[in-house]
Amino acid sequence: MGFSSTRSRGRPGVRRIVGPIASLVLASSLLAACGGDSGKPELVWYINPDSGGQDAVAEKCSTDDYTITTQVLPQDAGQQRIQLARRLAAKDPSIDLMSIDPPFTAEFADAGFLAEVPQDAKSQLEEQGTFKGAMDAATWNDKLVVFPFWSNTQVLWYRKSFVEKAGLDMSQPVTWDQIIDAANDNDGKIGVQANKYEGYVVWINALVEGAGGRILENPEEGVDAKITIGDDAGQKAAEIIEKLATSGAAPADLSVSNEGTAGSTFGSDQGSFLVNWTYIFKNYDETAPDVAKDIGYTRYPQTVEGEESRPPYGGIGIGVSAYSDAKEQSLEAAQCLVSPESQGINADLTGNMPASTQGYEYEALQETFPADLLELFQTSVDAAAPRTVTPYWSDVSGSIQNIWHPPRSVDDETAQRSTTFIEDVLKGGDLL
């Protein structure tokens, strides 16, 4: 979800394969056989769980020459990575297309798992106004390696009734310090993602980038990249997390909070502020209509007052397997899957916004979302801070989770301790 946030569509995912490579190859051959004997090629697209958008797009883009079918990956982004990586490492030909979280794009490309995106497809993506952040996240070693499908971002959601009580002017940029103080002083709880998982690192990265820093620099240096999370920006990020975690604004489930639990906190009687992805706007329509009417929205909070925030960036890129037996057809299908109309259909069904400006022109989106919210989504994506594109992101992220979790343990030494630990893990001196 990128880290990306998606809603379960209530159907089981594909069973996770955990055996040795021999078992993987056997399982792959069995799946390939399921393509049927009809003679019409079946392109198998491994998708992240959602509420039906990818299935609808797969049906739309099926042709007389091939049918696109879907297989659902696990809910957790890390488990999605593991399942795909194991099967691709075994050169499994039964995977044709796959939905890939941005942090894992460089890793898969560096390993040779992905077919390069053709120049004509790249030109199409540029012509339909694909956001720069989406193109950057889809690029490794100056080559476009996945097709940007949807680009998600977080905004600051707030309860209108709460900010009126707190006397906070939401027409002006607000800081993390301001919303923590407002919630603490008015018996409110703030919804964030702080479980020991990728979503917590997304928050940390946004805080660091919002203070003008980066978690690491020179990613092209691989294990020798310069780790900079211990600099002043990292210290400021730690200060904010410590302040929230030790305040009355912290929900009781802070250390296990994710997108779903944070949404529940926001919908409760103590709901005040929430940082979460675009789908939240329609999240309460059926279950809590009074909450839905009480939702306001604005730009992601500033880490440092007066410095523009860098909202989180998430999304999904569609990769074509280098080992697909139908590579050319899969590349053709991918172009259809990421067309503006396809992006619009997916966004309308899932709340996961398009990766291009033309995708936002889809008529149903214009009817579903207020114009100012659609504008906020786009400006937030433009200003977003993707996690560093590096083949070693899984090690970097795991190291941060180890040192920064639980949030109540964060103090003025956390950022520097994580710098040392990341360096040790990357160079083999320590293990996750």
UniProtKB/TrEMBL annotation:
The keyword Signal applies. InterPro entries: Bact_solute-bd_prot1, SBP. Residues 1-32 form the signal peptide. Transmembrane segments: none annotated. Keywords: Signal, Sugar transport, Transport. Belongs to the bacterial solute-binding protein 1 family. This is ABC transporter substrate-binding protein.
